[in-house]
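Quick one: structure tokens for this chain, please?
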Amino acid sequence: MGLLDRFRGVVARRGRASPAGTARNADARYLTEWVRAHIGVEGYVEPKTTVTDVTVVLIAADGEWTRRIVGERGAQRLAGDLRIPVYDVRKTGYPQRMRDFDARRRIERQRAMEREMNDMNDM
């Protein structure tokens, strides 16, 4: 059974997927493509909160990351299906490269805003 099959929702007897199943299927496809498009991806499973179900953060070697809700069953199958290492974030924490990536993005956004402001002042 493949990744997409495992994330599919309950299929009605008439062959239509439930709306929740369709969303899970889209998330599974997104995660698969994200792993294919990035190098050195690791998964970090985040616990269920009062606001969200179990989530996974995929973090590439350069620190770029993405997050999706996968639920407990999805999190359990993630490592095997995506063939990446998966860690419990409560035990390992987030890698420094993720924080460094976010810091670089903040600096880039700040510089872009400053350039826009300077361009507007020059008019």
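The helical segments are 3-7, 19-37, 71-82, 89-92, 96-122.
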